[in-house]
């Protein structure tokens, strides 16, 4: 008869983190963290679970607002029609909501469409402005054949996107960004935001080069309101 003893199962490592998404489990994890009972590994698990939960919530809100804007927003519907006339198509399948690791609110890529940074867009109004901004880039790509590696081209489309999307209207500047200037507010906002966007391009050396590119094309690009008759504010 064999006298070998069964090998005991290895004990599970107690990290202080309990998997689960119900209210009780969330509170248990918060309490464990506050009391210092969570190991480094447990903290990593807790932060990942929290980020996953936030990503799901952020993306659900983003997708809901995206669909509402595509259906009901005057500026988004107008830009969508003009893009369609140029042979493009903006719809819910190529406007994607994702969490972004950077401070940007969105982006446009002619190969993939528009990305909205769900963690940076906290209201439907902010999403509407961001979507309209990226749709101006899509329009420019189809209408003017923008060279993405040309800083002057980049500066022009950024000026137009900030001018026409509504993101620089006075109420947005005053209440959201704390910019209280009453004269030439719109121009200063467009110039500031266009310069920041150009400076973020990988082929731009610094903000000095970005400002130079914006200044070089400012007059013609700020005045170009196509496809609108006038600036949307």
Word description of this protein:
The chain has 233 residues and is mainly alpha-helical. It has 2 domains: 43-124, no CATH class; 146-233, no CATH class. Helix content is 56%, strand content 6%. The chain has 8 helices and 3 strands; from the N terminus they run αααβββααααα. It has helices at 23-34, 40-72, 74-85, 124-144, 151-164, 170-176, 185-199, 207-223; strands at residues 95-98, 106-109, 113-117. A 3-stranded mixed beta sheet has the order 1-3-2. A hairpin with a 3-residue loop joins β2 and β3. α2 (40-72) crosses α3, α2 packs across α4 (124-144) and α3 (74-85) packs parallel to α4. The radius of gyration is 24 Å and the shape is elongated. The protein starts with 22 loop residues before the first helix and ends in a 10-residue tail after the last helix.
Main attributes of the structure:
233 residues; mainly alpha; 8 helices; elongated
Please state how the strands of the largest beta sheet are arranged side by side.
1-3-2
List SSEs in N-to-C order.
HHHEEEHHHHH
pLDDT < 50 runs, ≥5 residues: 6-12
Number of distinct helices: 8
Question: N-to-C terminal Cα separation, in Å?
Answer: 89 Å
Biggest beta sheet attributes:
3 strands, mixed
Shape annotation:
elongated
- Would you tell me the overall average pLDDT? 84
Please report the total strand number as a whole number: 3
- Rg, Cα atoms, Å: 24 Å
Helix content: 55-70%
Number of domains: 2
Structural class: mainly alpha
Please state roughly what percent of the residues sit in beta strands, choosing from under 5%, 5-15%, 15-25%, 25-35%, 35-45% or over 45%: 5-15%
């Amino acid at each position: 008869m064999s006298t070998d003893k069964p090998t005991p199962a290895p004990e599970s490592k107690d990290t202080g983190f309990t998997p689960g998404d119900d209210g009780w489990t969330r509170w248990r994890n918060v309490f464990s963290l506050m009391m210092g009972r969570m190991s480094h590994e447990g903290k990593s698990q807790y932060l990942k679970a929290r980020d996953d939960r936030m990503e799901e919530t952020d993306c659900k809100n983003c997708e809901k607002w995206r669909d509402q804007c595509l259906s009901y927003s005057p500026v988004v519907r107008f830009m969508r029609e003009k893009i369609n006339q140029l042979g493009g198509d903006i719809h819910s399948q190529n406007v994607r909501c994702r969490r972004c690791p950077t401070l940007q609110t969105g982006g446009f890529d002619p190969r993939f469409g528009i990305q909205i940074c769900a963690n940076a867009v906290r209201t439907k109004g902010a999403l509407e402005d961001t979507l309209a901004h990226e749709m101006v880039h899509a329009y420019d790509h189809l209408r003017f054949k923008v060279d993405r590696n040309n800083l002057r081209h980049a500066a022009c489309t950024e000026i137009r996107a900030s001018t026409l999307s509504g993101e620089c209207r006075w109420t947005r500047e005053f209440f959201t960004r704390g910019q209280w200037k009453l004269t030439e507010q719109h121009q200063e906002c467009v110039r500031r935001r266009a310069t920041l966007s150009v400076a973020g391009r990988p082929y731009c050396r610094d903000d000095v080069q970005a400002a130079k590119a914006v200044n070089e094309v400012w007059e013609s690009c700020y005045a170009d309101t196509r496809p609108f008759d006038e600036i949307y504010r």
